[in-house]
């Protein structure tokens, strides 16, 4: 994709700033009928010879085989990464770190207060971290470089920046939105149909396109396939798309004939929805298809009173069901115009629902028609080492008591469903783009349970043995000699950088060294001396004195680097100002703060508001906190975070570093534990469990993985996982240590939870054994050897403590101290 194109388009849209249409206040989440509606008829004349055949099950209109055009089923495959504003820099701190000329002396251990008393664990753990304004020393501003395109004034809640519906608000507003298993996109006069309506598509596995090699370098799904487009005669060149009711799980999208007009077509977009539902507000519906229509049949028998049913066959041999309901009871009939166009014979005030049939879905779709989800309420519990979370689907329908919803679950959902939810799983499945097969569940709520990693703390951790932080006397002496040098480095010089990402990594590195000294080596004096320096380095950020201070901006509601405001570079600091990677950037700060608070609880209260603000920016759990959107990065439907911020993207949101995702969640858990916020700690535990399961299904592939293509899992990791494709590459290079290593950094207690021993063993044997890891250049060498500690900690220990160790093999954001201590403790040396 061309970055210059998007910039020009954005500038044009900024100039074209007409008044937005107002949302109607009808008391309904989605659709309200027009009182006294009387349909008007229109004359429709087919432009091709259509055969009408009455049958016992309905009347079929059959089109002739297209003679001059082929079905547009191939779409577009985007094979190159779009670097616009994306984190193209190497994630490793590669500047040379000078050796300290003197070593830091051990201070007198100071008496510190005990840990914070634990707060109460709520019945619903999704309680606000805080509802206070951001710290007063962070300047506030109302502007942001990226406009919120056509968001209606009714949207008062903070708007997410990394969500599945993001493309509706950005750039051309035409890139896809993936609800799984369907995708939808505004046609905006483009594509095979030239329609101004909303395109609906579902891609099957046999349509995936694979890159070169075995395993394939990438696989991608075609975009721009307009299987069915729901539109209206009243829509044309002045059509605009608006959005409102934007939540972490849903959006309400409307099409208007022109700015200032009432919405003509409205769609409630919810992740996992079984139907694509469209409300038609006194319009003449038209159906268009780039794949081309073969036939449409109106069923003679309605699936339920008041609900009409149509069966549409396309030239790709796929069958779709269309259900229609009008509150006024008016009939809906279609006339086939040609292979691309089907038009209603009258205006319609009602709801249309579309669903693709893989061959066994008719009875389930019939039963579920007439109900649609409008959003999702999330709740959760924690009881000891067992956590649970529930999706309650808020729904509407054609009666006051709508049918039970049909929703689609992803593989990681199915694996953790409660017994009650599992009973509602059906054998109806559709392929997804990057998440295996979606399975139908007929239920108005799902409950999922997970085993929580409650034994995990700050120290090295093994999934089978729990926390292991003991070292022998000899091992302590070896690690202490290393730590004494590293803790004496210039912390301020390494952390006060022009990047929140690099700065956070440096602070976390020194926090780990302090932890090792304090908890594993029992040198409280040297730990306190190092902690004093670390607090001073951290204070630069708490006081907002870093090179690019933070702003709190109220357009999108978040804490952003001032770097783009100062430089006009959308990609500076990996796109922080545009909300790229906030969970990575701020997660390192929260992780470092948790260690400081663990070693010295007296530090917590004076600095809690700042750290909590970072937590709230990327992980606000509650609508009661009106300063930040809920769940900016973590996607509770997908089970992992998305890093990609405010950039229109052809293949949807993406995430590169699954391991830094895990780090950001461990940071929540640990910070919650030191401040006594049991709900935050429980959410961190729950998210760690969910994300580990999701990563093992979609990002990290052992040989048993059944969700990703068999000719791709040999790559062992995703590289970059988009909503619509997976590319075994990184934004900063194609070296194998980059691609595999970005899913390793940082090595932390939670690494072994997501990265199973079987997976690590297979990956090591595929890419790094027999001296290949040791021969890797730069800081990636240390990362690979630290990762080895998850399966062969003794070999990792030997490498980090041998006399020939070269610090050039360390990432500037990692320490020999932590790597050696972790490997040694796991090895039991």
From TrEMBL:
Signal sequence segment: 1-17
PROSITE patterns tied to this protein: GH81
EC number(s) from the headed UniProt entry: 3.2.1.39
Reaction(s) this enzyme catalyzes, per UniProt: Hydrolysis of (1->3)-beta-D-glucosidic linkages in (1->3)-beta-D-glucans
Record-annotated Glycosyl hydrolase family 81 C-terminal domain positions: 472-819
Molecular-function GO terms, alphabetical: endo-1,3(4)-beta-glucanase activity; glucan endo-1,3-beta-D-glucosidase activity
Swiss-Prot/TrEMBL GO biological process terms: cell wall organization; polysaccharide catabolic process
Highest taxon of source: Eukaryota
Record-annotated Glycosyl hydrolase family 81 N-terminal domain positions: 144-463
InterPro entries documented for this protein: Endo-beta-glucanase (IPR005200), GH81_C (IPR040720), GH81_N (IPR040451)
Gene3D superfamilies noted in UniProt: glycoside hydrolase family 81 endo-[beta] glucanase, Golgi alpha-mannosidase II, domain 4
One annotated Gene Ontology cellular component of this protein: cell surface
Keywords recorded for this protein, A-Z: Carbohydrate metabolism, Cell wall biogenesis/degradation, Glycosidase, Hydrolase, Polysaccharide degradation, Signal
Entry's family note: Belongs to the glycosyl hydrolase 81 family.
Protein name, UniProt field: glucan endo-1,3-beta-D-glucosidase
